[in-house]
NADH-ubiquinone oxidoreductase chain 3 (Florometra sp. BMK-2020), 117 residues
Amino acid sequence: MNGFFFVLFSIVIFIGLLCFLIYFLPSRLPDNQKSSPYECGFDPLNSARIPFSFRFFLVAILFLLFDLEIALLFPLPYSFVFLLEQVFVVFLSFFFICLLSVGLLYEWINGGLDWAD
């Protein structure tokens, strides 16, 4: 019981010391860059109505879709161990990868992956 109170007292003292340091030792030199919001490389003081390219949104949506589909492929190797019908799992994996490839080929042929307008 004595050890418990010692640890509890040490933690309280440590937290109190940290609060004291945070309160009395703030940053005294505010920087103009530190006080401005960061907008992913864009100047936050310009107009908010700068149009993005429609191709950017298409490629971003394609990236999200294919990223999600690739994330669905991760548990497939573990299913070989737990499922008895391994031939069926291999067939499903092959079908899923073929479906991904056909979707990527379709987007490539239709120009969905081109940056130029």
Summary: Helices lie at 2-24, 32-35, 54-73, 76-82, 86-109.
